[in-house]
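User: Can you recover a sequence for this backbone? Please restate the input before giving your answer.

Assistant: Of course. Working from this structure:
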């Protein structure tokens, strides 16, 4: 069971599934960290900008996420990062004054939602903001830079990008839950509980201000523009017209409970794109029930499966294979060489 997927794995109430393991997501985060020059390795935030006494100035390594594949909702991950260097200045209520502390080795993790955003809609929002004649030159330049990065991403999908809704899968730090921090993942020696809360809040605000960065992106999905869907060929029947996402558990045994963590079985949990085609809508329950594993465990990275693409049986046969066979039969000519 640990070395293979169940043959019963199916798409449930969806037409197409694309599942990515926790390991593969973290590999993608590591490869994209600061790749666009957004300077995400350097944290600099002054709480005075939001009415909080406190500052953070430091550097961080690439973060990792833990897929939360249990419970209701199934749309969140645990986001963890570690500081390589820096200092923080926070208010000490006991001493009734601010104090500065070294933060090298600090580790923090908090729950955030994973979300989808349409890149074409992002460009439109920037265009609307740029129409504001009251923008300062610096504000205008910042918006133009952000819009250019989004447009460059769209252009990478080719000349037909305008026919698709390009969905960016990203970590939405505006939803960060800092009310119940997992103590096992918090390492901030020398800070009292009030300072820990202030530090995490400042960090959340900094990430929220950088939510447009490519470094918070986990991947991209495509959906056909609904207005153009009817004009597509048979093969394009397999292109989604709507996309949503949720987490999905790995189980070592059908009766086992999913595990959460950073390695082993837990690292096989998935974030899954759940897609519908032909402008169809999901009926009833939206949470995808477990039917088998989309990933496998194997110490050899070359042999293990880090994700799966699954097509609904009826869609693949009735809408994809059969029309091609009909065309193939129509094109065939049978000629008798003899009368026997």
């Amino acid at each position: 069971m640990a070395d293979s997927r169940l043959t019963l794995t199916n798409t449930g109430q969806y037409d197409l599934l694309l599942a990515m393991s926790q390991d593969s997501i973290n590999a993608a985060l590591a490869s994209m960290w600061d790749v666009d020059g957004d300077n995400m390795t350097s944290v600099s935030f002054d709480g005075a900008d939001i009415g909080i006494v406190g500052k953070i100035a430091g550097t961080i390594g690439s973060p990792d996420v833990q897929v939360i594949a249990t419970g209701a909702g199934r749309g969140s991950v645990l986001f963890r990062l570690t500081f390589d260097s820096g200092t923080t200045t926070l208010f000490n209520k006991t001493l009734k004054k601010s104090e500065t502390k070294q933060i090298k080795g600090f580790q923090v993790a908090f729950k955030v939602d994973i979300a989808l955003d349409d890149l074409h809609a992002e460009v439109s929002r920037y265009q609307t903001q740029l129409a504001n004649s009251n923008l300062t030159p610096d504000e205008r330049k910042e918006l133009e830079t952000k819009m250019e990065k989004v447009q460059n991403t769209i252009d990478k999908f080719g000349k037909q990008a305008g026919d698709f809704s390009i969905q960016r899968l990203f970590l939405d730090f505006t939803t960060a839950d800092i009310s119940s921090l997992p103590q096992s993942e918090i390492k901030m020696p020398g800070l009292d509980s009030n300072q820990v809360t202030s530090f995490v809040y400042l960090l959340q605000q900094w990430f929220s201000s950088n939510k447009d960065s490519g470094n918070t992106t986990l991947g991209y999905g495509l959906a056909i523009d609904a207005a153009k869907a009817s004009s597509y060929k048979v093969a394009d029947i397999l292109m989604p017209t709507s996309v949503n996402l949720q987490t999905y558990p790995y189980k070592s045994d059908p009766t086992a409970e999913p595990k959460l963590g950073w390695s082993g079985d837990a690292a096989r949990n998935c974030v899954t794109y759940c897609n519908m085609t032909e402008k169809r809508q999901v009926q009833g329950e939206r949470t995808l029930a477990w039917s088998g594993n989309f990933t496998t465990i194997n110490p050899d990275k070359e042999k293990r499966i880090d994700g799966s693409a699954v097509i609904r049986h009826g869609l693949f046969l009735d809408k994809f294979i059969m029309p091609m066979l009909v065309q193939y039969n129509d094109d065939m000519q049978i000629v008798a060489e003899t009368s026997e």
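That completes the design. The chain has five helices and twelve strands.
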